[in-house]
Amino acid sequence: MPASKEEVAAFLAAEFPQSKCVVESVGDRRAAVSHSIGVHELRPGGTVAGPVLMAVADVALYVAILGEIGIVPLVVTTSLNINFLRKPTAQARIIGECTLMKVGRSLIVGEVSLYSEGSSEPVAHVVGTYSIPPNRSGV
Amino acid sequence: MPASKEEVAAFLAAEFPQSKCVVESVGDRRAAVSHSIGVHELRPGGTVAGPVLMAVADVALYVAILGEIGIVPLVVTTSLNINFLRKPTAQARIIGECTLMKVGRSLIVGEVSLYSEGSSEPVAHVVGTYSIPPNRSGV
Amino acid sequence: MPASKEEVAAFLAAEFPQSKCVVESVGDRRAAVSHSIGVHELRPGGTVAGPVLMAVADVALYVAILGEIGIVPLVVTTSLNINFLRKPTAQARIIGECTLMKVGRSLIVGEVSLYSEGSSEPVAHVVGTYSIPPNRSGV
Amino acid sequence: MPASKEEVAAFLAAEFPQSKCVVESVGDRRAAVSHSIGVHELRPGGTVAGPVLMAVADVALYVAILGEIGIVPLVVTTSLNINFLRKPTAQARIIGECTLMKVGRSLIVGEVSLYSEGSSEPVAHVVGTYSIPPNRSGV
Lengths: 139, 139, 139, 139
Known about the structure:
Four copies of one chain form a homotetramer. A six-stranded antiparallel beta sheet of chain A has the order 1-2-6-7-8-5. The first copy, chain A, has a two-stranded antiparallel ribbon with strand order 3-4. Chain A is of the alpha+beta class. Chain A contains two helices and eight strands. Chain A has helices at residues 5-15, 50-69; strands spanning 22-27, 30-35, 42-43, 47-48, 76-84, 94-103, 107-116, 124-131. In chain A, 48% of the residues are buried. Chains in contact: A-B, A-C, A-D, B-C, B-D, C-D. At the A-B interface, helix 2 and strand 5 of A face helix 2 and strand 5 of B.
């Protein structure tokens, strides 16, 4: 039973209270999230810190998964591989666009392209793997 | 010209002002860093958030690199691959122990084992790749 | 100066004489290659061996890179990350479709989706990074 | 029920009949394998082909896993991440030394350092993840 954008957003707010990610869209094995950029996300020189990009990708994957299999609380990240491609700008939000490549019974694999909003060239690319508990029963 | 623990710590404080990582040791292509765990690092249920682990690993790699090649400001992460192995405890600091596997002219590759302090089993393992600017001249 | 499909195929035949990969298309930061499946590529049970998939992805990336920057002999793989998604069939060729995500001066990053020919769901997904020698002069 | 070196070698000979890997040691969550280098493993210029290194690492991980959990036929590779560190020599065997980092109920994660025999600096480093079927009953 897939979860709606509102259900996923409510779950994220409870589960990741520190996250500033906003759910932009979810459904059809895809999701998009955005993250505003302020002083806490920047490094000297005006680039977005790498861990911020990783966190946005992690949330984008999580959102796409919940949108697909429902609100399953025990989904956990098992691996995440990020390649940094270009320097993000400090003046734009980070957008993460996720596509799930495999939705198995115990493992889900997806990829995320991260952009500085308004640019068509990705600043980073992520592949993440998530494990699902054996008896997933969507809440 | 390698950099001392104090030089690396001073550079980190300027370059990563938001980071709470503490440099524990550096030298001989190795480094150890620690990160205290508080409410900002935890997810409901009491586990350390994945992006915190990624950030600690990134700093551990950065510290080991600066310790080896000196304070080169333009070193950038090009890729980072993390595998989550065990659930970290909320009651202990995270320790990151880095070993550089290759120190080339343009690329450096290292690995980091992350632990909950006091445990001998890693909570996560990271391999990271960093690129060095062509004319690196340690400051 | 990009290289044509014929130039890339000739270079591959000389550089990777053991490879059975066929160049299907190349250009516009993309490439497609195919690999026939016979007894040498199969494991008991009738699935394609993992290293065969890795090799096809490596060639697909190499072809896309040569198609973009020309016949540069010293391009080397620096990292390759593969996720196995579904069991390939023994009855179909493996197709690798590559898209380059970044073409930098010293590093190129691309992704490859691998399919059993005729299926629309990928059997594996690869992200690879390649380094280019400092003074690349296409032959 | 762990498997002995002889049991693992016999299983590999049946399961990976094309592989030239030799099991050197296994036990205690570790394994070492070797692979001779001949014309089929070399690329022009005298370096060992990347896919050969990936295949050796895959076997080293497989051997370490079977040595730990017994001869479980349905263990499959779910991801493999390789970093190429140095050019291997054509004159020495490739040695793969594996250590398992996590042996869970459904996922096993290990790392492999690959060497040209006689050298102490690794030519490549691999992290691999394997999934175990739900009802693993060692044969």
